[in-house]
Amino acid sequence: MIKLKRIIESMIKESVHDKNIFKAVFLGGGPGSGKGFVLGGLTGTTNGGGISPFGVKIVNSDTFYEYLLNKNNLPLVMDPSSDIYATQMFQREKAKLMAANQFYQIVNGCLPVFIDGTGADLPKIQKVSSILHSLGYDVDMVMVNTSLDIAQQRNQMRPRKVPTMIVAKKWEEVQHNIGAFQSYFGNQHLHIVDNNKSYASDSEEYNDMMLQLFRKGKRILEAPLQNQVGRKLIQLMQKEGVAYLSELSISQELVSLMQNLEP
Q1: What angle do CA 207, 208, 212 make, to 5 degrees?
Q2: What is the Cα–Cα distance from 88 to 72, expressed in whole angstroms?
Q3: Is the pLDDT of residue 138 over 60?
Q4: Residues 5-27 pLDDT 10s
Q5: Mean pLDDT for all residues in the chain
Q6: Considering only CA atoms, which of 40, 42, 13, 39 is closest in space to residue 222?
Q7: H or E stretch covering 12
Q8: Phi/psi of residue 143, each to 5°?
Q9: Neighbouring residues of 221: CB distance < 8 A, sequence distance ≥ 6
Q10: SS3 145
Q11: Which of 105, 170, 215, 233 satisfies CB 3.0 to 4.6 Å to 30 for a cystine?
Q12: Closest CA to 134 of 2, 260, 1
């Protein structure tokens, strides 16, 4: 818990003066799609861990969830028929609250952020995307696409396994939403990554794939800010000498928007 608090506290010290501000990227893909691998390449980290050279932060309630499961000596394997499943789900809700608080702190500092999810809940992504855009963010989405068979195989290899029925359900929901995401984000801001292939660590193919992903992340995060709201907020924050959206003279409306953000 102390480590998690330090992570959040370190974010509070950062501000509008950081690089690649007002950039948000949704990461979509069902369980077993290999999002951690893709995220590591896009952000220049290892499976989304460590410090990104782009200054990007990552919001993923699963990180908090696994921490809470381990802390409470609960198994990582989910089984809806087990006696402890309700306890596991209670920790899941706590993890979501922790992730929401982390998300608030990141957006308050205008920092670049990856929102790691599945892409199964289309209305929720549209709602959060709309709020982020209203707060000045440019918003993109990266979909990690795999076949259902590959997703099921990879899920069985993970420490925190998801029931096969849920893997199939999430996979179908994600596939169903791809067309809607194309319409919503447009071809310029929706990026689909085919991740069916497995790579031997440090092989030439692995390194080539990581380089391609790194370049894609660089293009997304380092592109000039297009959102006019974000540009004006930067000017206003510099004029008022503040570092966070909540410190602005117009902060009441901004804080109200941020409090509706749930990753």
Answers
A1: 115
A2: 9
A3: yes
A4: 454 444 444 566 678 999 999 99
A5: 88
A6: 42
A7: helix 2-12
A8: -100, 125
A9: 20, 23, 25, 54, 56, 112
A10: strand
A11: 170
A12: 260
